[in-house]
Design a protein that fits this description.
It is built from ten helices and four strands; from the N terminus they run αββαααββαααααα. By secondary structure, the protein is mainly alpha-helical. The protein has a domain at 2-26 and 148-277. It has a two-stranded antiparallel sheet with strand order 1-2. A hairpin with a 2-residue loop joins strand 1 and strand 2 (25-28). Helix 2 (29-51) runs antiparallel to helix 7 (149-163), helix 3 (58-83) packs antiparallel against helix 5 and helix 8 (191-209) runs antiparallel to helix 9. The protein is globular, with a radius of gyration of 20 Å. The model has no long low-confidence stretch (mean pLDDT 88).
Length: 278
């Protein structure tokens, strides 16, 4: 039994973040997870389109996917710079979009740091522009996509786990793990797996069961926002705060403050959409 526990706790040390390495070229599992997430979302949305009452054709959805992916990636990157490391990127603005370090000459460092909340803002902005240009209803489009998002998000968190990043706080529980990137070498919560399961699988099952309950357009989006915000808020108590920020207010992290804003936004959508329907 002790051997099994020890193997589990040291599992991250046996995982390589690289799927393929050819000289200086590296293909990471994290990139593959993004492709899996986008593909799963597309499959689920296509299924809903064929079996439920949505007035869109597949070509429209395919066109929006490009908008959504660009909005997601751009928003996630800008959100990280704004919410999690504003001072640094204010001094080094080119590093937001370029994988180079200019502080001591020019060095390739890659682009690291993506914010989920920034990604949500980015994809919402992209959807609003797309719907305006195509003259289609934003709330219906959001309801079509919202139940599919969590399952794709699961694979993003699995990518974080394989990378050994975004690990949890120090713990003594036997299911904790040691992560190679942790300079303290302490046993820690595998918060990436907690998020993959609860924010991904559990939230997906909940929203998928309720996907046809739409007394007003916008409800599915609101449930997704509230559901994710609530689950992430509590899991953040097990996740190590970002080193450059620490706790932002009292014992709350930046992620928790952003989740509180999500919950309030979701509740506001329900109130406004119900009032509009009435």
């Amino acid at each position: 039994m002790n051997n099994l526990i020890d193997a589990w706790q040291h599992l991250p040390y046996h995982l390589s973040p690289n799927l393929i390495t050819l000289g200086s070229f590296q293909l990471r599992y994290y990139s593959l997870m993004y492709l899996v997430a986008f593909s799963l979302t597309y499959i689920l949305v296509s299924y809903r389109l064929k079996n439920e009452d949505f007035a869109y054709n597949l070509e429209t959805i395919q066109d929006f996917f490009l908008w959504g992916i660009l909005g997601l990636i751009g928003g996630a990157r800008l959100g990280y710079a704004l919410f999690y490391n504003f001072g640094y990127y204010l001094r080094h603005p080119l590093e937001i979009i370029l994988p180079l370090d200019f502080s001591h000459g020019i060095h390739f460092v890659g682009i690291s740091g993506m914010s989920y909340h920034g990604g949500v803002i980015g994809i919402v902005i992209a959807a609003l522009i797309f719907c305006h240009k195509r003259r289609i209803n934003f709330w219906n489009l959001a309801d079509l996509f919202s139940p599919a998002f969590p399952l794709g998000y699961t694979f993003g968190r699995l990518g974080n786990f394989i990378n050994g990043e975004l690990f949890g706080r120090a713990t003594t529980v036997p299911w904790g793990m040691y992560f190679p990137l942790d300079p303290s070498h302490e046993l820690r919560h595998a918060s990436q797996l907690y998020e993959a399961f609860f924010e991904g699988i559990v939230l997906f099952v909940f929203l998928w069961i309720l996907r046809k309950k739409r007394p007003f357009a916008g409800l599915q989006l609101a449930l997704y926002i509230i559901g994710y915000g609530t689950i992430r808020f509590f899991i953040e108590f097990y996740r190590e705060p970002d080193q450059q920020l620490g706790f932002v207010w009292q014992a709350l992290s930046m992620g928790q403050l952003l989740c509180m804003a999500m919950i309030l936004t979701g509740a506001g959508i329900i109130l406004l959409r119900k009032r509009r329907r009435t």
